[in-house]
Design brief:
Glutaredoxin; about 45% helix; alpha+beta; 9 helices; about 220 residues; two-stranded antiparallel ribbon
Length: about 220
């Protein structure tokens, strides 16, 4: 009986250890496709977690709605016009049809890279450059699924507490980083328990969170 009890204890310890080691941190990014600061973050900052392996410890949630508004008739008006609404729909469809963040991020990264170059009208070239099949995304958009997804993202965005003040609005485990969003990797590493992955080396957490919106830079504000 003693050996059985010891075995049970060992199994519980192993289970706890496995659960602790599988701890994943939520990283949510609320953005809009034509905000230059959102594009810059997606193109220049976010790829680092894919390159250094930190993505293995992260549940990534991209929410392409941003500062858009919903009319009384359910229509969507985007901060940077109809082109932004269109690309928001396309990126929402990409997230839906390719749930794997490695896949949909490769496509969104490509589109936002074109946005940075003011070549976003060439967004469809990203199917070719990523090797992804265009048909699922095209079908999603043509069937109106993209707009339905955007309404869901609108509900998520409008339910944020505290409410978002601008984009990019980056949250780690539900906590907004305010204007310190470029330091997101340090916040992820700080949220991890136990032995830190090598990807966390060199990331020191800045403990001061900017809450004075008058001092915030690099954002697209709500009008």
């Amino acid at each position: 009986m003693a050996s059985l009890g010891a075995l049970t204890l060992l199994l519980l310890l192993l289970l706890f250890s496995s659960s602790a080691s599988s701890r994943r941190v939520s990283l949510a990014i609320y953005y809009e496709s034509l905000c230059p600061y959102c594009s810059s973050f997606i193109v220049d900052r976010l790829p680092s977690i894919f390159n250094n392996g930190l993505i293995s410890y992260v549940d990534l949630h991209l929410v392409p709605f941003g500062n858009a508004e919903i009319g009384s008739d359910g229509s969507i008006t985007c901060q940077h016009g109809s082109d932004e609404c269109f690309l928001n729909y396309i990126e929402a469809c990409a997230i839906s049809v390719w749930p794997d963040p490695h896949v949909h991020f490769s496509f969104i990264h490509c589109v936002e890279n074109l946005v940075e170059q003011n070549l976003y009208n060439q967004w469809s070239s990203c199917f070719r450059s990523t090797g992804l099949n265009s048909q699922p995304v095209v079908d999603c958009y043509n069937k109106g699924t993209g707009s339905k997804l955007e309404l869901q993202y609108a509900a998520q965005t409008n339910a944020l507490q505290p409410p978002h003040q601008y984009v990019p609005w980056v949250l780690v485990d539900g906590q907004p980083l305010y204007s310190d969003y470029n330091n997101f990797e340090a916040y992820i590493c700080n949220a991890l328990n136990g032995e830190l992955p090598t990807a966390c080396e060199g990331h020191s957490l800045m403990t001061f969170l900017e809450t004075d919106t008058n001092r915030t830079a690099g954002v697209c504000r709500i009008h």
